[in-house]
Every structure is written in C-alpha cells, then in structure tokens.
UniProtKB/TrEMBL annotation:
The gene is nusA. PANTHER family: TRANSCRIPTION TERMINATION FACTOR NUSA (PTHR22648), TRANSCRIPTION TERMINATION_ANTITERMINATION PROTEIN NUSA (PTHR22648:SF0). It is found in: Cytoplasm. Monomer. Binds directly to the core enzyme of the DNA-dependent RNA polymerase and to nascent RNA. Pfam families: KH_NusA_1st, KH_NusA_2nd, NusA_N. It comes from Flavobacterium album. Keywords: Cytoplasm, RNA-binding, Transcription, Transcription antitermination, Transcription regulation, Transcription termination. The lineage of its organism: Bacteria, Pseudomonadati, Bacteroidota, Flavobacteriia, Flavobacteriales. This is Transcription termination/antitermination protein NusA.
Amino acid sequence: MENLALIDSFSEFKDDKLIDRVTLMAILEDVFRNALKKKYGSDDNFDIIINPDKGDMEIWRNRVVVADGEVEDPNQEISLSEARRIEPDFEVGEDVSEEVKLIQLGRRAILALRQNLISKIHEHDNTNLYKQFKDLTGDIYTAEVHHVRPKAVILVDDEGNEIVLPKEKQIPSDFFRKGDNVRGIIESVELKGNKPMIIMSRTSELFLEKLFEQEIPEVFDGLITVKKVVRIPGEKAKVAVDSYDDRIDPVGACVGMKGSRIHGIVRELGNENIDVINYTTNTQLYISRALSPAKVSSIKIDETNHRAEVFLKLEEVSKAIGRGGHNIKLAGLLTGYELDVIREGTAAEDEDVELTEFSDEIEAWIIAEFAKIGLDTARSVLKQDVADLVRRTDLEEETILDVMRILKEEFED
C-alpha cells in the first residue's frame, strides 16, 4: 500500500495516552496540508479524510472544469478533455473531485511527511507534559530513582516522565539508590529546547509546608493555618501555626501525642529538628516564642529598622543561639527581625546554684520548704525579704538568716 509508512506512524502513536483521537486527526491533517502546499502551492481546494485507527486516509482535490486551452491555474482548474477522462459527461463550469494518491507527492515528500508527523506528535507530547507539570508546581510528587549522578538524581514517575532532583535541592543527609521512591515538591518546569525539564526540590520551605498539609488532618482541612516556614535543610526548622478556632491547640495538634504526628515529617526530612510555634501578632511575644527553647527576659524593639535587642540570662544565651547559630538565625527569618542577643549582667552576677547542692549544710526539709514557694536556687532565695519568707514558709527567722549566710558565703568564695 502507498500509505504503509503512515500506517506504521499511526500505530506508533494512536495508543499514546497523552493524545486523544481528535487531536491526532488534527495533527495528521496539518502535516498533510503542509505537504500539499509544498507540492501544489495551495491546499485550499483539498479535502482530507483520515481514519487514524486503521491508518487509512484519502486526499481529494477539487477543481473547476474550463474549456481546453483556458487552464490558468492547474491546481484550481482542469481542462474539459482531462475531466472527461475521469467521467465522460462533465461540462464546463462543473466541479471535479479527484483522489490524489500519496505516490504523486513523491517518495522524498512521503519520508519528510512521516518525519514531520513524528516531530509534531513529540512537540504535542512535550507541550502537554509542560502544561501537566506546570499545574503541579508547588505540589508534592513521588517518583522512583532511575539514575544517581554526582550533580543530580534522575527520577522517573509511573508514566515514564523524567524528573531531575539537583544536588543543591537535596537534604545533606539524603542517600539514594536505584529503585528508591523519593518525595519532594515540583519546584519548577523549564523548557530546554522543546523538551520540558522538571525540577524537584526537597530543601524548599514549601515542601515542609506541604508535608504538614499531607500529614496533619487539621491543616489539610484548613482548621489550622501554616503562617510561615523557615528551615536549614536537614538541620532545623521553625513553623508558625495558627487556628481561628479557640478550641484547637494548633501546636498540640501538629505535634501530636508524644510527637506522633510530626515524627513522620521529621523522618522524611532526615531527622530535621522542627520547632512548631504558636503564631501571634504581638511582636514581642512572637520573637520570644521564636527563640524557644530559650527563655527571654525582655525585648527592646526598633520597628523602624526591624531590629530587636533580646535580653537573656547567661544560661539562656546558648539556647537562644543554638548549635551553629541555627536557632537565632531561624527565629530572625521567622519573625522578620534582626535579633541582637544582650547578656544580662556579668557572668559572676548571673551564676546560680541549685539549693540541693547545699544538702550537706542545709537540711532537706528546709530546702523542701523553699521549694514549696517556688524557690529552688541560691539567688532566688537571696533576692527575697526575710520577713516575707517567714510569712510564706514554716521556717523561723533565725533559720532563714542562717540559710542566707551559707548561700552568701558560696558566692563570696
């Protein structure tokens, strides 16, 4: 058959799930019309009938019958004598439809037509793929490791689409082997030539936010809102959450009983330490919460320059800064303020000792009496008024004075 090469082309693409029958027919007609334009100069007077399921197609050229010797455009007009060779009863002015065989286009044109068809189909697939993943940008996606390269991991999804996970988009502790399933977000889709390059990320803040949506029902349902996420991938992250329903504890709901809900997220991120914080519009309180687990003494805010001086006791400074400075860096990113840590007093003034350390000199029941009213360190006792301590405890004034003398001697030493 003349159209054998095209039948092969149809069978190659007709079952492609990215292209429907109507679209395939439109592409085929476009390819044929381009071939006809090159051969005859115009395709306006051609009818193309295609059956892509079988690979059958017909091309009909429509011309007007003119008197012999009066043909000006052979593509649009046919002489009376030539028309009567098709059917003997044709007259001048009538329309003639004549089937054009593919072989009339020439072997070279047929080969070019098939190549053009393949090119158009691939172009359509790439356009569809680009649109498909453009709509998935920002969503969590799972794909399988196909190849591990020094600068990127190449993934393949269930439909055979290639996804790139660059080295800089991987969590430092990530280790992948061929066949592993990998989760990340579709961060971007870029066109490289005509082919889309799909980029996945596991380091994006959005990935952590989407994991909260996926793993915590209240976030998915909109009962809890993730206000902001900041992270140092694989090390530490801070997530500010809020709820418009006063009956819901957003932090408790996100963390779960004994960390049960957040554990899966932490594991997915290579044991990244995640602090979940109650969002508030109170800037001082927000900064204080953001610096958790450190306990802040006071905060002085400079709204104009978006800076804040955070006053901390000496023993809280290291907690506020965190390992490698991660805690204070993330707190600044979360709140939008540049945070300056101010140590309260000198080291000598801030040094404190637990009362239990004096058990050799102070009886246990006396230490217990102080503990009943919330005094469990030496400095906390020394700051109190003696008469007030007599009133608040079952201790005699003499006993209290004796305890204070022992405590003062500790600091004088």
